[in-house]
């Protein structure tokens, strides 16, 4: 909103003629003062000009703003009371009033890639997308020269400031928290401008080529280590299963003979030229006992 020194006024000029056109005139300010002599003279001349050129003057006096727009009107350089006008028709006085249309729709823009030095001394290039809208048309005109440009510049500096306090691992894995922190910081900073920052999204994080290679090598080594651990665990489980199977077979010699026959059947199905004669273990018991006695 305008400061206390900015005088607000409400002027209506009145005159009724044969055309039935009517305008009211009342000029007041916040401090109870008036426009002064020059202001009243200009107002009277404007009323006369409107009356003389009626109805052609309606083309200059009546303006239209869309549903998503608002018009901020200044009368002799002072903000008109009642706030922004619209949507629809509104009336201005030529030679006295000037107005600016403000778009209230959500606007998105890309933050250019920013070279950021993280807390762990790694240089990364990060870009983002910001979504914002003007929620107070009067403040966006009176409190800042260019709300759009100022928001863009502030978004770039905020991105650098926020990422400068994070480690590389946090930037890569916790983008949602970074986006929320940026949105809160931007929204708080742009609130005096009448701008509402609705959403911030981190698009891409580009790392140096050497760092990418180092991270790829680290990831590959980590995967190889996990593969070796998994293979060792598998061999351990397999050896336990084989030991349990050997214990079961050792309790029944007939089971070992059946195992020989199964092996012979599988080999003969795959390689017909190979013939294996299973040797019963009972025939080897005598040799095993003699060898053990010699030892």
TrEMBL record:
Keyword check for Signal: no
Q: Which GO terms describe its cellular component?
A: plasma membrane
Q: List the InterPro entries hit by this protein, alphabetically.
A: Band-7_stomatin-like, Band_7, Band_7/SPFH_dom_sf, Band_7/stomatin-like_CS, Stomatin_HflK_fam
What Pfam families does UniProt report for this protein, alphabetically?
Band_7 (PF01145)
Q: Under which name does UniProt file this protein?
A: Band 7 domain-containing protein
Q: What family classification does the UniProt entry report for this protein? A: Belongs to the band 7/mec-2 family.
Q: Does the keyword Transmembrane helix apply?
A: yes
Q: Provide the Band domain boundaries.
A: 60-219
**Cell compartments where the protein resides:** Membrane
